[in-house]
Amino acid sequence: MRRTLESLDEGELLRLTARGDRRAFDELYRRTAPWLAVRLRRRCADEDVVADVLQETYLAVWRSAGGQAHSSAQGSALGWLWTIAAHRLVDAFRSRARRSRVPVVETVESVAPAAEEEVMAGRIDADLERALLALPPELRQVLRAMVLDGLTVRETSLLLGMPEGTVKTRARRARIALREALS
């Protein structure tokens, strides 16, 4: 019995995409683009930039899915998508900063936690969760970019529109606060 595309997980869709299956790519896009757009909008309020980054991300997925096709876990397929999108967003900020030489990011704090944050919270110890939630928003924001999104100090600086030194200071303050809260 042949399974339908709707019944496949993202990792399986990615493997089919790597073999040039346009229908699998369309299903992967249909399923993941809304989630990816929400994550991008949390980091950039400019809809044109978000649309460009989405387009560039899925173009990169179509071109390079074969390199990721060995992955069998759904989570790694989504993580791979987010890594591409986050790097494309940083590239867009760099390009924009070179053109305008003004701050390029409007930070939007959401009122509801993102789904991935809820999943992460379910996987971590309750003490760590309380310590993370006790951090000031500006420290959590830096941790989210550097730890959850896996960005470098420079990429975080561009993403959040703050100097690299500020990113380093906030990351250090967050680590110290977490260490103290957990000891």
TrEMBL record:
Domain RNA polymerase sigma factor 70 region 4 type intervals: 127-178
Segments forming domain RNA polymerase sigma-70 region: 28-99
GO MF annotation list: DNA binding; sigma factor activity
Superkingdom of origin: Bacteria
Transmembrane segment boundaries: none
Keyword terms, alphabetized: Sigma factor, Transcription, Transcription regulation
InterPro entries named in the record: RNA_pol_sigma-70-like (IPR039425), RNA_pol_sigma-70_dom (IPR014284), RNA_pol_sigma70_r2 (IPR007627), RNA_pol_sigma70_r4_t2 (IPR013249), RNA_pol_sigma_r2 (IPR013325), RNA_pol_sigma_r3/r4-like (IPR013324), WH-like_DNA-bd_sf (IPR036388)
GO biological process: DNA-templated transcription initiation
Gene3D superfamilies recorded: 1.10.1740.10, Winged helix-like DNA-binding domain superfamily/Winged helix DNA-binding domain (1.10.10.10)
UniProt entry tagged with the keyword Transcription regulation: yes
Pfam families to which the protein is assigned, alphabetical: Sigma70_r2 (PF04542), Sigma70_r4_2 (PF08281)
UniProt keyword annotation of Protein transport present: no
Family stated for the protein in its record: Belongs to the sigma-70 factor family. ECF subfamily.
PANTHER family hit by this protein: RNA POLYMERASE ECF-TYPE SIGMA FACTO (PTHR43133), RNA POLYMERASE SIGMA-70 FACTOR ECF SUBFAMILY (PTHR43133:SF46)
NCBIfam families xref list: sigma70-ECF
Protein name per Swiss-Prot or TrEMBL: RNA polymerase subunit sigma-24
Taxonomic source organism: Couchioplanes caeruleus subsp. caeruleus
